[in-house]
Amino acid sequence: MLRLAAKLVAFFWRRQDVPENEAGPPGPELTEGDVKLRTVQGVVTRYCSDYGMIDDLIYFSHEAVTSRVLLNVGQEVMAVVEENKVSNGLKAVRVEAVSDKWEDDSKNSGRGLSDPSPRVLIGCVTSLMGGTGYINQTTRFSLESVCEGFQPCKGDWVEAEYWIRPGTWSSEAISVKPLRYKRVDKACISSLCGRNGVIEDSIFFTLDSLKLPEGYTPRRHDVVSAVVVESSQSCYVWRALCLTPVHRDATAPGVLPEESYGTLLLKNKGNVEVTRMTNFGTLKEGARKAMVIWIENKGDIAQKLVSCKLAGWDKAKQFRFQDQARPAVSLVSVPEEAKDFSDESTESFKSRSENNTHQPLKGIAVSSGEVFPGDCTCEDREKENTASEKQVADAEPGELVPPGGKTCIMVVCDAKNPGRCKELLLLCFSNFLIGRHLEVSVVSAEESLIAVREPFSWKKPKSCQALAPTKTTVVVTTQKRNSRRQLPSFLPQYPIPDRLKKCVEQKIDVLTFQPMLAELLNMSNYKEKFSTLLWLEEIHAEIELKEYNMSGVTLKRNGDLLVLEVPGLAESRPSLYAGDKLILKTQEYNGHVIEYIGYVIEIHEEDVTLKLNPEFEQTYNFEPMDVEFTYNRTTSRRCHFALEQVVHLGVKVLFPEEIILQSPQVTVWNHIQDAREDGQFTSKDSKTTKDQTKPAAKERPVGTENQPGAAETHDAVDETEIPKAKDTEFFNPVLNENQQLAVRRILSGDCRPLPYILFGPPGTGKTVTIIEAVLQVHRALADSRILVCAPSNSAADLVCLRLHESKVLRPAAMVRVNATCRFEETILDAIKPYCKDGEDIWKASRFRVIITTCSSAGLFYQIGVRIGHFTHVFVDEAGQASEPECLIPLGLVSDVSGQIVLAGDPMQLGPVIKSRLAMAYGLNVSMLERLMSRPAYLRDENAFGACGAYNPLLVTKLVKNYRSHSALLALPSRLFYHKELEVCADPAVVTSLLGWEKLPKKGFPLIFHGVRGNEAREGRSPSWFNPAEAVQVMRYCCLLARSISSPVSASDIGVITPYRKQVEKIKILLRNVDLVDIKVGSVEEFQGQEFLVIVISTVGTLAAVPGPGCPGVARVERQGAAGWRLLDPGATWAVAPESSPGDDQETRKVEGVQEETVTAPAGLRAGQREAPCRRGAASHTAHSVCGELTLSTLLSFNSPLLVQVTCR
């Protein structure tokens, strides 16, 4: 058999020689002893980790590959081959890659995989475990490869050199160093919480990784010097590596060891054992329960119980000792056999008193709120903790607890406030302190109305069968996807590369297939990098969608059509739209499965009406079917197409470096001087600014190049007068100075086609400025055609509504183009007249002003509209759109005279990206944010201090806030906007509820209310709800609507919650108390509206970081227009008070309400969350998701009161 195989190989060897002799001179032949070597060229046909085959003839091992690079099947190689004389087999002793292909039709930019030199990767440390870590989740590194003196932490930004490990399909860094670092001298430690702290409100540090001089422990207000590195840590972009004290504040308290107030406190000490079961369980509101806590001395030395105290965590004072005058101590001699610590015992207790002096507690002291080590005695602390109800008693020294003796105390719980409650019991002995947590869960009567009606049961799809059916019949319906619009589609399919999909599914390092992902974004890799990132996001979406496939479901009938019930559809889990395709499969029978292709034609709540094959619709007899959902790739295909179209914009738009001044499109009002005449540009700016105001630089109208006579009329065009703005100036007479400046800059277009950025923090009138600019361009430039886009329908609708309310544009001049899948009932009545003409895309494309979403702008590609069709493109809320999505409308503007305006706030939440790989490599960075980091757009107070610290030709920052009370504005202004935001809201509005009798802190219109509730799901709905939060929301609404001093109309109260099921439960409760006029919904439903009071329910718990299915770790779907990356976005819709929950905040008692926080929102303390300022480095925790729903709400709604209720 071997001899036959050898002859067969020898035959092919001869066949190998023949073409070489015919085609030309043979390849180089080497002689090495008696072995002949030949150089041949072939293709890798098989390859695994240790060996491979070339043309299925030549064997090679991975040691033979030059530089041991990773080869791919189908790759062309040059090989030095030897023949084994015994077996006549062929073996390659050297293999070198000729080229490296990315799929079949494109090549990698830069160096190929065969290049042995290391590549450079800039990324974020995403995990650390033991002696290894990962950059961008894929590139492994060892701590040994980290540069000396640098101890990396999760969130650090690093620069690494890496290579592809042959045969392992993974990348590994060979050197890692900080991306940026600096030394900070004489800085003050501004805050300290546990083991985390902040220097100068800008540099984060943690004692877990901080290098300190021996014997030094940081304290608040210490002046230190530090070496810091760039890192994404909550709201901070720097992390301290080491600290050196310069000056210590002698009055500042010390930092506690972590276990001093944690594990150590709860441990038994001195051979004294205390009952550990101190949970009262679940009690109904108003109920009472007593519990006996036993204390046993198992040592040989008598111990003295000096006093018993409650730390005061529970402000509602639901726990007390049985004798409120003082906790009694009963010394009981208990036989060994009676050591059953019963919680039900209600023995009477006798107190004894002696006039003995208390002994100091060594290293331990007790306060009403926290436990600190110190040198103070129990006696000192007792004086500080005297309460009105004598919960902390001045217990006089009792008799000693003898060896083997026991004593007990009785604690009573009076259930007052719904939710979970925890208190700390402190047992103070002569030489030590023992603590126990007292816990109870209180259920209110109202919660029974919204309790779980049926257990949650999620139907999982059937596991894949081992053997596929032998035959599958696909029956396709005649229904077309776009039934409303018969549009030609010029969009290519842009299929996901199989190799990339395999890479993600098998968790193979993507850098082995697309190494340019690790490169910095530039013009040469722009298209390839974003295409790969879009595919990664699609792959994740397809995998996620498979989780919602259903098996064994029965369809309902609605006339001649079939209806499918999809649990969770209201929560967009899964996300379906009209026109989407579904696959219905029959149950397997004799190895046969029939597939029916159906299309969604209508959606009502969780019922989906399908259009299927007519024969199937008639014969269907309620047989069980399996359902597969398919991903709608329309938006993704439009993004891919836009990437091809925007190449014409080039470096000057996508990577602007220098400013070239153009002739103004419109001359501005005479009393306004141009910035060039203001002396605002320094010598530094003049280096990158070129004056281009010669007549030859004047540009012809778009499209004249190919018109007859265009060449002859060129000179005439140059000599035409530039349009002038009319004397009436602004349509909106109340625009402030910065808004007027932005409109003039847009109208002038001095730097076109460079994008002009309108930097608008929430509440500063960004949309109002866009409206004015659109109206001015429409009036002043008769040849203009304006495209106004936004990432969401609600944002686009708001622009259309405001333009309608201006009474300047009529339906004949403006059109609203909607997506084909949008239902008419979701459109506002006021803008419906503008939507009628939008159904005809050809007709709509000729309107002067067109409003649509970024994705729907791709409809114009489908009818053949191309570059230069629009003279002006406005993108509102540009910070919420991914860069490829933003490019869809930009690909339709002229690259010569087109004007691009991006309006948004780079400090707010960015685009929603679900693929962690796509996030790690930058898809979650919007074009607005990326441009703001370019040198031409950077903040420079020295060069542009007189005009807002930004180049006024490119950026205008709005700083006057018209929505929020000063107390709500102070924190975000300090953290994100260089303390530049100005309070300009109507005082009569923002102060209207400051005197509300239930407001914990008068004059502070914000309430954070912590509820220790439990989130739940029911039935087949994946949506979450929290009964305790819902009840608390209802109680706040009742207090507001029925207030004696400041009653609020139900129509002036809005309730925001991110989960559909919570909306349903809150509506039930409000209906029960006759408050049906209160609007309840998601943030999206509140965009552009104003309410006197906003109440927010976040649903998710803050007690722990939940798993992916828990509401705290949200599928971070945009729930509204605003939201800072680390703060509570919901809190910005208020102009007066708001209420929002948090943990460990100062709370104040409100009658009839549980606990409200009157301090800064939870999650702002260092180290408590992972929502980075440079996104993509860390995932959102429960704390961050709750946080991302509040403070932007504060600034986005004109509400005098904001109340946030959150599960702690």
From TrEMBL:
GO biological process terms, semicolon-separated: germ cell development; spermatogenesis
Chain ranges of the DNA2/NAM7 helicase-like C-terminal domain: 942-1099
The DNA2/NAM7 helicase helicase domain, residue ranges: 735-824, 846-916
Region of interest called Disordered, as start-end residue ranges on this chain: 677-716
Transcription regulation in keyword set: no
Keyword ATP-binding (UniProt): yes
Helicase MOV-10-like beta-barrel domain: residues covered: 548-621
Annotated Basic and acidic residues bias: 677-702
EC number of this enzyme: 3.6.4.13
Cell location: Cytoplasm
GO molecular function: ATP binding; hydrolase activity; RNA helicase activity
Location (main, coarse): cytoplasm
InterPro entries for the chain: DNA2/NAM7-like_C, DNA2/NAM7_AAA_11, MOV-10-like_beta-barrel, P-loop_NTPase, SF1_C_Upf1
Enzyme kind, highest EC tier: hydrolase
Catalysed reaction equations from the record: ATP + H2O = ADP + phosphate + H(+)
Taxonomic superkingdom: Eukaryota
UniProt family annotation: Belongs to the DNA2/NAM7 helicase family. SDE3 subfamily.
Name of this protein: RNA helicase
Protein species of origin: Oryctolagus cuniculus (Rabbit)
